[in-house]
Amino acid sequence: MSRSDAYIVSPLRTGIGKFGGGLMSLKAEELAAFMINKIVENTQVPTELIEEVVVSQSYQSSEAPCMGRYAGNLAGLPVEIPGYTVDRRCGSGLQALVDAAMQVQTGVLDCAMVVGVESMSNIEFYTTDMRWGKRLGSVQLHDRLESGRVRSQPESRFGKFSGPIETAEILAREYGITREASDAFAVGSHQKAMAAWRDGKFEKEVVAVPVPQRRGDPILFKEDQGIRADASAEVMAGLRPIMSGGTVTAGNASQQNDAAAGCLVVSEDFLKKTGLTPMAKLVGWSAAGCDPFKMGIGPVPAVARLMPKIGLSLDDMGIIEVNEAFAAQVLAVLKEWNIPADDPRLNPNGSGISLGHPIGATGLRILTTMLHEMERTNARYGLESMCIGGGQGMAAVFERV
Fold it and tell me: Ranges for the Thiolase N-terminal domain (predicted)?
């Protein structure tokens, strides 16, 4: 097997729909299949040359089991192409990318289709009461969207947990982050996202999704619905904290969303064979665990583990992406890194607070936005980092080629 660097080709994404918004009528498998076909269309790669489909999805369902295989078949790829699904919660999309990259780097394959998807609007309710019947009494339905948050760690070891908002409040107290600082960061995120759309920065990365209508032609969806045009300190200050006496509000936290993103990950031989032009190559990556009750600090140990391995530092990065699960969480990470919140390298086009956080798609959404920004600004290196529910962090560095 010939070894190779892993190159990123044609990173694309859909617009990000609000919870119950413009993409609600499309199921996760439909979004994933759409993205597969868009990447094929954009690259004109013969589908028989694709050797694997890797799909990230955190809220998987037996309605479309093993999304990598299911979406590949739904997209019409040759049945000989296998597929599998990756779940590392918020880091799922980035993990799917590095999974494919390692297969390329070790010579296992030359071309993988990688897609991240989440349709949070369609996550179901479920019951654990009915497998063997229920002769008497009521049946309880659980919200799988909520369960995925509060059951992110074993209660027997860590105790009861109300959800990710609690982790953000813990970091806010520990790092002395005020409500005002969180609101200011959130306003900046929305302003950067609005400016990116206004200046046409997303035109090359966002593909329009046809959304069927009951009557008439499909409507093309091509927007990030969660951006607040009215974002200001005054508007943010008027929002109530979610936890009594806390700093986290609906305005300075990430959203629930629907979206898909993806790319090809290929070898140098594949580039020579097809004439495709890559945008970047993977330099290195890492994952690290942390206290589940402080999951937002996850990027710090992940980056600390990564940088010595690749001989680089934060100072070398032209773009630094930290997914915005919560403003307080990002500000805590920045304090550890000694980076100011207004550093122009940081999330230059917004992130989870303004654009949205469709869990399984976010890692590839961030990658897509970052690589296009690196191309515009001629940045050599870009860092993608994420905190992960349950107490993990991920980080990866990419080099523009």
Answer: 7-269
Helix (H, G, I), strand (E, B) or coil at 257: strand
Residue 335, phi then psi, degrees to nearest 5: -65, -40
CA 276 from centroid of its chain's CA atoms: 25
Question: Residue 199: what pLDDT?
Answer: 98
Residue 129 φ then ψ, to 5°: -95, -15
Q: Which residue type does 224 have?
A: D
Marked catalytic residue, from 90, 111, 263, 290: 90
Pairing outcome for strands 206-207 and 7-14: parallel
3-state secondary structure of 219: strand
From the list 116, 118, 174, the residue with the least C-alpha distance to 148 is 118
- Residue 134 clears pLDDT 90, i.e. is over it: no
Residue 387 annotated as catalytic = yes
Retrieve residue 44's tokens: 């004109």
Pick the closest to residue 353 from 191, 154, 146, 162 (CA basis).
191
Question: Catalytic annotation on 90?
Answer: yes
Q: DSSP H helical segments within 265-358, as ranges?
A: 268-274, 299-310, 327-337
- Nearest Cα neighbor of 330 from 311, 309, 357 is 357
Per-residue pLDDT tens digits for 82-113: 999 999 999 999 999 999 999 999 999 999 99
For the entire predicted model, the pTM comes to 0.97
Q: Which residue has the tokens 């010939």?
A: 2
Catalytically annotated residue among 111, 190, 290, 357: 357
